[in-house]
Design goal:
Mean pLDDT: 73
Strand order of the largest sheet: 1-2-3-5-4
Strand content: 5-15%
Radius of gyration: 40 Å
Oligomer: single chain
Number of domains: 2
């Protein structure tokens, strides 16, 4: 399962958890409210009415148990909402009608319970509640329809209204506070998941664009070696070639094949990476280990031209590599720089890798004895269109693009007797 699908699933699960939490809060708070109203009835010696309300408490207990076992399911809200309506009908008829505090509870039900319902059922119960209230108000207009039509005294009426009002107000404050807190937490979680999804999308698009660029570079970068191969094959048809010329032809053919092979392996190697190997190097190796490994993997390039590569390490302390996801990018850049140094340097020449490390950054300086790059080429050195007789030259464009993407710095430094490319990266990039 992809990370995106996993996050979508987690987001749905979190929404379901939120619904269950809100429903649980409403059930518990409603049950406590009904219980307080029953105690109020008992205090007013309305024993018969109090007994009629007791089954409602059992319904809340059953609903809460089902919620804890199965999670929130909308169909179970009907088994709570309808009994509560019936409860308020009894309370209205048995507790002085409009003179009693029943409408406090009806209004609370009218406001709170729709938050648990879908739009269809929300409208249904809203209309149903309005109809029930209308009927009750109509019946209450004739006191002969009420079970208990009058309070024994004004103090009982005051006590009943005050107690019910305090209970309902407390219920609403607690409920609204908790629900808002739940929704705030859910909103923060949704923002977090949206940001994670956006990061995944950005990364996927970046990888897609990078791979498209690499494949475009690959198609472009193999043209020159292939053309050279064609020219060399044409020369092979010349019967007048001397042994020396034939040997030069074979050496040239070998170099072009190696160039082509290296270009293909370099670019495809950046598309298909080995995370486990990279993680091992990042966690266990040092910058010197990484550099030596890259030189060893590239040694065939230098052997063909009898070139020597030396690593000059200005290391006073061996700092571990503190990043774990850019080993491949660093390898691609250094291999390309070494390949360029070999390609443009004469045979039997020296190529130097100067390594400077600290706790905060790593610096590689690749120096060669090639002909100094002309100023007009230097100005567009890291542009995709640069070309040369040994290839399209887009390797430097590729290196610069990768360096920019990982927050590193790649620059060219002209030397009196050659060229130098400096590659610098922070040792704390995560």
């Amino acid at each position: 399962m992809s990370k995106k699908l996993q996050m979508e699933k987690e987001k749905i699960n979190n929404i379901e958890k939120l619904q269950a939490k809100v429903a649980e809060t409403v059930l518990v708070a409603s049950g406590i409210l009904i219980l307080l109203i029953i105690f109020d009835d008992l205090a007013l010696e309305l024993y018969f009415i109090a007994i009629l309300k007791l089954p409602i408490i059992l319904i809340f207990i059953l609903a809460y148990t089902k919620l804890k076992i199965s999670g929130f399911q909308e169909r179970y809200t009907h088994f709570v909402y309808l009994p509560i309506l019936i409860f308020f009908v009894f309370n209205y008829l048995g507790n002085q009608g409009t003179q009693g505090p029943t409408m406090y509870g009806v209004l609370t039900l009218f406001v709170t319970y729709p938050i648990l319902l879908s739009r269809k059922w929300r409208w249904f119960y809203t209309i149903l509640t309005l109809i029930v209230i209308s009927i009750l108000l109509y019946l209450g207009s004739d006191k002969t329809n009420l079970i208990i039509s009058e309070y024994p005294n004004s103090m009982d009426q005051y006590q009943d209204h005050l107690f019910t009002f305090i209970a309902v107000a407390t219920f609403l404050v607690i409920l609204v506070t908790l629900v808002l807190d739940f929704y705030k937490k859910q909103n923060l979680e949704l923002i977090y998941f949206q940001n994670k999804l956006q990061e995944q999308l950005t990364l996927a698009n970046s990888e897609k664009e990078k791979n498209e660029t690499l494949l475009r570079i690959l198609a472009h970068d193999v043209k020159s070696p292939i053309n050279n191969l064609g020219e060399l094959v044409e020369l092979s048809h010349d019967d007048n070639l001397t042994n020396l010329e034939f040997k030069q032809f074979i050496n040239g053919l070998k170099l072009r094949v190696n160039d082509l092979k290296y270009n293909i392996e370099t670019i495809l190697g950046n598309i298909k990476r080995n995370p486990e190997s990279e993680m091992y190097l990042a966690n266990k190796g040092t910058a010197l280990d990484l550099t030596q490994k890259i030189v060893d993997e590239s040694k065939n390039i230098f052997l063909n031209k009898y070139q020597n590569v030396s690593i000059i390490s200005e290391i006073t302390e061996f700092y571990p590599l503190n990043f774990d996801k850019f080993i491949s990018e660093i390898t691609i850049i250094l291999k390309n720089l070494l390949n360029n140094a070999s390609k443009f340097s004469p045979e039997n020449s020296e190529i130097t890798i100067k390594l400077i490390t600290s706790e905060t950054e790593l610096i590689w300086m690749i120096q060669d004895k090639a002909k100094r790059i002309p100023p007009e080429i230097e100005n567009k050195l890291f542009k995709e269109a640069v070309s040369s007789k040994n290839g399209s030259g887009v390797g430097l464009f590729l290196c610069k693009s990768i360096a920019d993407n990982i927050g590193a710095i790649l620059k060219y430094i002209p030397l009196d007797d050659g060229n130098c490319f400096e590659f610098k990266i922070s040792n704390s990039i995560q």
